[in-house]
Specification:
With 110 residues, the chain is α+β, with helices and mostly antiparallel strands. It has one domain: Ribosomal Protein S5, domain 2. It is built from three helices and four strands, in the order H-E-E-E-H-E-H.
Length: 110
């Protein structure tokens, strides 16, 4: 699990990232990126009920947290990243999510 200092928790922070950040769409996730004044990255994962029931949403969030933990070393520090899960991501397996997330991060030039 990501430590507390690596998570985005406040609704106001999410709203600022949506408003002021850049958007990078992918097949299964949409990545919003905004700069922060910290020396490390912070992450937020958003899923709606359109993705599926709680079991499906939590499985996707666990997979994305694991992928973020693995990819964090390769991402430039000093950013807030919000991953919004698209409604058809519930049918994606781990490899598809990994491929899509790496493509979106490459698009964002992180």
């Amino acid at each position: 699990m990501l430590g507390r200092e690596f998570r985005i928790t406040a609704t106001q922070e999410y709203n600022n990232i949506y408003r002021n950040g850049k958007k990078f769409p992918g097949k299964f996730v949409i990545l919003y990126v905004a700069d922060n004044e910290l020396g490390h990255n912070r992450y937020g994962i958003v899923t709606s009920t359109k993705v599926g029931k709680a079991v499906v949403r939590n499985r996707i969030k666990r997979r994305l947290r694991d992928l973020v933990r693995k990819m964090d070393l390769n991402i430039k520090p000093g950013h807030d990243l919000v991953l919004v899960v698209r409604h058809h991501a519930g049918s994606a397996d781990y490899q598809q999510l990994e491929k899509d997330l790496s493509m979106v991060i490459r698009k964002a030039e992180l």
